[in-house]
Amino acid sequence: MTVTPYMPDDEDDEMNGYLKIDRYNPEMIAKLSAHYEDILAQIGEDPKREGLLKTPERIAKAMLFLTQGYDLDAKQILGSALFKEEYSQMVVVKDIEVYSMCEHHMLPFFGKAHIAYIPNGHVVGLSKIPRVVDVYARRLQVQERLTNEIRDCIQETLQPVGVGVVMECRHLCMCMRGVQKQNSVTTTSAFTGGFLQEKTRAEFLNLISSKLS
Ligand SMILES: Nc1nc2c(ncn2[C@@H]2O[C@H](COP(=O)(O)OP(=O)(O)OP(=O)(O)O)[C@@H](O)[C@H]2O)c(=O)[nH]1
Ligand SMILES: [Zn+2]
């Protein structure tokens, strides 16, 4: 079996050491592929039929991608782009797409994260906020822990006046199986510092509910 090693698609990633290429090494992919081949047989498929020949390897690569957060350091990523700046109002990055997998069924849950902080002498490079979301989302998760981990990472690294995180997700384990509710959305939130005050929290919630046309 030929295995193509994963390469970061962005030089910046490589330079910052975000991705440890070892995660995608051929030995690891081959080991995982063997397990998935076995699973295909166990569920009643024929792993030797043409359409499935490369499937174990594809799943192995997909799973390594979807769980790459275990090899990434969110605090290091966030801390790599802090800029001294006297801006003291709320910074909000909203509608960040989130794709994660629930730790109970390993089925996807997905939706949006809305994140705000009030700087305390430093601002962070904006792209680092969605990167932090991805680091924690690309692990086996529950939505509540994911929400708290994002909050704690920003609070501890940036030490801002406060952090607010709101997440809205659909869980496929509740849609495709089990209770089979297609439209339910779960909202979680986590706050620190200034966001524990009603006025600040209301400003954040108001900003994330407004639509840009
Ligand atoms: N709190 C929380 N629960 C989650 C999350 N993702 C999935 N779950 C729930 O985890 C629970 C696992 O419950 P179990 O009774 O052990 O598993 P189950 O028999 O598959 O449950 P059903 O989904 O009700 O069929 C289910 O209620 C899921 O809806 C999450 O992010 N947060
Ligand atoms: Zn689940």
Automatic annotation (TrEMBL):
Domain GTP cyclohydrolase I: 34-208
Binding site for Zn(2+): 102, 105, 173
Enzyme class: hydrolase
A GO MF term: GTP binding
An annotated GO cellular component: cytoplasm
Catalytic activity: GTP + H2O = 7,8-dihydroneopterin 3'-triphosphate + formate + H(+)
Cited InterPro entries: GTP-CH-I_C/QueF, GTP-CH-I_N, GTP_CycHdrlase_I, GTP_CycHdrlase_I_CS, GTP_CycHdrlase_I_dom
Entry-linked Gene3D superfamilies: 1.10.286.10, 3.30.1130.10
Pathway: Cofactor biosynthesis; 7,8-dihydroneopterin triphosphate biosynthesis; 7,8-dihydroneopterin triphosphate from GTP: step 1/1
EC number: 3.5.4.16
Keywords per UniProt: GTP-binding, Hydrolase, Metal-binding, Nucleotide-binding, One-carbon metabolism, Zinc
Subunit structure: Homopolymer.
PANTHER family reported for this sequence: GTP CYCLOHYDROLASE 1, GTP CYCLOHYDROLASE I
Descriptive protein name: GTP cyclohydrolase 1
Name of the encoding gene: folE
